[in-house]
Write the structure tokens for this entry.
Amino acid sequence: MAKDYSEYIKKYNEEINNNPNDINALTSLARIYVKENKLNEAEKYYNKILENNSDNTEALYIIGFINMQKNNYKKAIDNFIKLIELGIDNAFVYEYLSIMDNNNRETFLNKAIEKHNKNKLKRKDYERVSYMAYQSYKWKMYDFALYYAELAYSIKQTNDIINLLGCICFYRGEYDKALSYFHELNFNCNKTNIYALCNISSCYRKKNSNNMAIKYLDKAKALDDNNKLIYFNIGTIYDKLGNRKSALENFNKAIEIDSNYTEAIDAKNLISI
């Protein structure tokens, strides 16, 4: 049940009526509205605080965060930079800046990592560091993605993070490490995760272990025999091995599932020439 703040709101508004610049009342009201997710109201009171004290770090931080949520990046960046100038340069601030300022992203991420290396992580940090891992992966900044994903893994070994670690290592060309993560994921999912099996196969292909790659795609096919991508990938491996008959069989099966599957049609036509 949500807490009823109506009496508190009434009390603090009365105090502000008597003294419009009452910092305690303004701050208390702003915090209540943050808890109630009424960010426009919270912003109004925090702005009032800044009118009287432009260096109030709580107001700078929350208004910066609100502006970031609203995609008002210029205002948010100004607030966070001021926090840094005031000595509030924790990892959160640098991470927020990295999200908004792609031109200086690498610099901000390096500063965030400096701060992380000086602080012990807690379970509550999982959501934040895993988010930064996914963002860094999305930005194709795989070194940073690996750092944050390993931080997340050190807190909680979720299947999502295990899969992300495998994907990061794959794109870094570390196929043995990627395999270890994808095998861990496959084990956790009772060997029934199609995506883990396909990713294992992709790693073996990169290692030129084509028979192993086919083996894991066959396992995936046994779980979903109506997946065109599985048949297409098996076909491309057989094609690489020079087994035209098996390649054509799998390309034809992929086309049977999706008659407009251009990649499979093109691959089949190339073999048939």
